[in-house]
Amino acid sequence: MHKVTGLEFRRFSSKHHNASRNWLIPIIKTNDPEIFGLGDASSLGEDEIIIEETKYLFEKFLKEEDPINTESLWLNMYNNSLQRGGRISSTSISGLDIALWDIKGKILNLPIYKLLGGSQRDKLLVYANGWYTNPGTPEQIANESKKVIQMGYKALKFDPFGQDNFYKISKEELYLAENRIKLVRETVGKNIEILIEAHAKFNVMNAIKIGDMIQKYDPLFYEEPVSEEKIDELKQVREKVKVPIATGERLYTKFPFSEILEKNAADVLQPDIANAGGITELKKIAILAESKHVTIAPHNTCSPVGAIAEMHLSKSILNFEIMEYHAEFYSPQYFKVFTGFPRQNNGYVTINNKPGLGLTMNENEIKKHPPLNKPLSKGSANKKI
After folding, report:
1. How far apart are CA 289 and CA 283, in angstroms?
2. Does residue 299 have an active-site annotation?
3. What is the pLDDT of residues 213-235, one digit of tens each?
4. Which domain holds residue 201?
5. Is residue 325 included in any domain, yes or no?
6. Which residues 6+ apart lie within 8 Å of 265 measured at CB?
7. Which of 18, 295, 334, 385 measures 20 to 30 Å from 79, CA to CA?
């Protein structure tokens, strides 16, 4: 029988237009030196805390256990954590859970998607993110969107609201945001999906005003119009706005997603596999959503490990909508640190049939890109009222 024996970590960095990021990869070892699991516990800023929590969970609940038992191991980690439901604990559990699934696939000689019920589709639709300047002029972003479409993408997402809007938005900024959306829509044409990101910046009144404005540009969805902290506010926006509402990147485990579904507060859920509970929990979130005919569009600012874990999950679920994809807009090492990670082709990705996640780690390449002292993200607003 295989047993969990050890835990190591690897860290590396990469950059794109709006962000510089560190990624944290927990590696679970087994008593078979040929079989180990890769995970993703990237929190975009709290690596040292995550490492300590991950070590604690590993030593207390995983060491010497059978890695095949992903369900009971997940429950033991979750039920015995004082921080359960929070980002730190959930991210640590996510990283360990993904690594356990990688091990399970390698032991059984099957790709993870087959362990999750098999394939629902041969290829996965992805949308481009990380491609635009924020804040950029309408003309600048339109020109950047043209390049994205020339790369083959069928969908792209952007935040047109700049860096200095929080809670409310001035008429001048609203006009500028609309011009950005208008020029992008005119540039990419009517057959390309555009997705509008708000990064949870606005109160209900302004979120509704913005939703009414963007309707004419036919977005696939309107993401995080209000904070995730009060689901009733999200429901108010959904009831007033005639654009599909998406949310979920700041929510952890199935429980808040269940409340969103019970209150009919969103059309699309966006859990992040590296933060919301890993493969075990995202499968459950997808099944809960399926019962309400709500689709899943996984949030993905992950390393290649988390991203391909989401691909396995997305390939296996009925209610997959679309998946976020930054990879081609990061610096080139994103495709070098692990072999087996797919590039998009005409707006879609396909994954290989190798056991587990299907990735091979390149230790030398990881060493070339050490973590940054101050990773940066320009997605969220400067929170001033």
Report:
1. 10
2. yes
3. 999 999 999 999 999 889 999 99
4. 114-355
5. yes
6. 231, 232, 234, 235, 238, 245, 247, 259
7. 295
Contact 182, 188 (CB under 8 A): no
Give Cβ neighbours of residue 77 (< 8 Å, ≥ 6 apart).
57, 61, 62, 92, 93, 96
Q: 192 and 63 share a domain?
A: no
Do 150 and 98 sit in the same domain of this protein?
Answer: no
Is 131 contained in some domain?
yes
Contact 96, 54 (CB under 8 A): yes
Q: Are 276 and 84 in contact (CB under 8 A)?
A: no
The angle subtended at Cα 94 by Cα 90 and Cα 97, nearest 5°, is 135
Specify the length of the chain in residues: 385
The structure's pTM equals 0.95
pLDDT at 376 exceeding the cut of 70: no
- The answer to whether residues 232 and 137 belong to one domain is yes
Residues 31 and 66 in one domain: yes
Domain of 172, CATH number, reads: 3.20.20.120
Would you give the DSSP letter of residue 258? H
Alpha helix ranges (H) inside 70-190: 70-79, 87-108, 112-115, 138-150, 171-188
Among candidate residues 151, 126, 153, the one with its CA nearest the CA of residue 315:
126
299, 312, 326, 369: which one is catalytic?
299
Q: What is the pLDDT of residues 298-330, one digit of tens each?
A: 999 889 999 999 999 999 999 999 999 999 999
Mean pLDDT throughout 323-338?
93
**Which of 68, 90, 110 is at the close of a domain?**
110
What tokens appear for 208 in the block?
């509704």
Structure confidence at residue 256 (pLDDT):
97
Q: Which of 2, 16, 17, 199 is catalytic?
A: 199
pLDDT score, position 83: 72
Q: For residue 199, indicate whether it is catalytic.
A: yes
